[in-house]
Amino acid sequence: MTTTPTTQTPNTIELPPNYIIPIVLMISAFPLFLIQRWGSLALAFFALFLFIQTALIRLQFTPTDLDVYRSGKLIRRFPYQEWSNWEIFWTPVPILFYFREVKSIHFLPIIFDAQLLQSCLKQYCGHLKQN
In this structure, are residues 1 and 20 in contact, taking their beta carbons and an 8 Å threshold? Predict the structure, then answer.
């Protein structure tokens, strides 16, 4: 796990992946197997899904947008001017990133460097009201 941001241009910051949540979920699935096999299997599959997403998905902060890439291809652009607020839930151990646009709400698991995510949000969206 790297904590150094990958920079595409001088004004664009790409968040490096963070595999902590998928690892913790996968480890938690093993003892759960002794108590609840189907629950353990569901948790293991969810952890595997998050491993794959962590490997494929990248967030890039540009001066005007949050861009979401999958395998190097832009799949979604979120202009900051359409955001009304943002929040990182449970800051001691960040697990969920929330932001609200004028017309929609988005939740993302923290599968990126949480400190860099918060730093970029403050830099690019610091003017927004946090919950």
Answer: yes
Contact criterion met (CB below 8 Å) for 114 and 96: no
Is pLDDT above 60 for 5?
no
| Phi, psi (rounded to 5 degrees) for 49 | -60, -45
Residue 4 vs residues 24, 36, 77, 107, 123: alpha-carbon distances, Å: 22, 39, 23, 24, 17
Answer left, alpha or beta for residue 60, where phi above 0 means left and psi between -120 and 50 means alpha. Answer: beta
Q: Count CB neighbours of 43 within 10 A.
A: 18
CA quadruple 67, 72, 73, 78: dihedral, nearest 10: -10
- pLDDT tens readout for residues 60-81: 999 999 999 999 999 999 999 9
